[in-house]
From TrEMBL:
It comes from the Eukaryota. It comes from Aegilops tauschii subsp. strangulata (Goatgrass). RCC repeats lie at residues 32-82. InterPro entries: RCC1/BLIP-II, Reg_chr_condens. SUPFAM superfamilies: RCC1/BLIP-II. This is Uncharacterized protein. PROSITE patterns: RCC1_3 (PS50012). Pfam families: RCC1_2.
Length: 125
């Protein structure tokens, strides 16, 4: 009998949103919790573990109901119902984005290669 590893899609019950960056993943649950795992050297897996998070770890900094998730090479972004956008990037910065400043932040994000952030700002405008 020959045994082989066969990839299987496994989505736990209660998952609402999923996003994948270059080497990390974030999920948003229906109950509002967010989990992140994967390569984490810049904090992009949204946890305070070592450079690699092997298992989903809860994210406790997000406030409000999650509307969108986005991830890129070394960053992740969460858009909440309060129109606040939190980006975890190389500089571990958090910015609040609203309709009045979305265009300016989108411009900066585009010039600095934070394309996931730029896409979220574009959707907010």
């Amino acid at each position: 009998m020959l045994l082989r590893n066969i990839p299987v899609l496994v989505i736990p019950s209660g998952v609402r949103l999923v996003t994948c960056g270059h080497s990390h993943t974030l999920i948003s649950m229906k109950d509002g919790r967010i989990y992140g795992w994967g390569y984490n050297s810049y904090g992009q897996a949204a946890n305070e573990k070592s450079t690699y998070a092997w298992y989903p770890s809860p994210v406790d900094w997000c406030v409000g109901e999650v509307r969108r998730l986005a991830a890129g090479g070394g960053h992740s972004a969460v858009l909440t119902d309060a129109s606040s956008l939190k980006e975890l990037c190389e500089f571990k910065l958090a910015e609040t984005v609203n309709r009045s400043n979305a265009r300016l932040i989108e411009d900066v994000a585009s010039r600095t290669g934070a394309d996931a952030l730029a896409r979220l700002c574009e959707k907010l405008r």
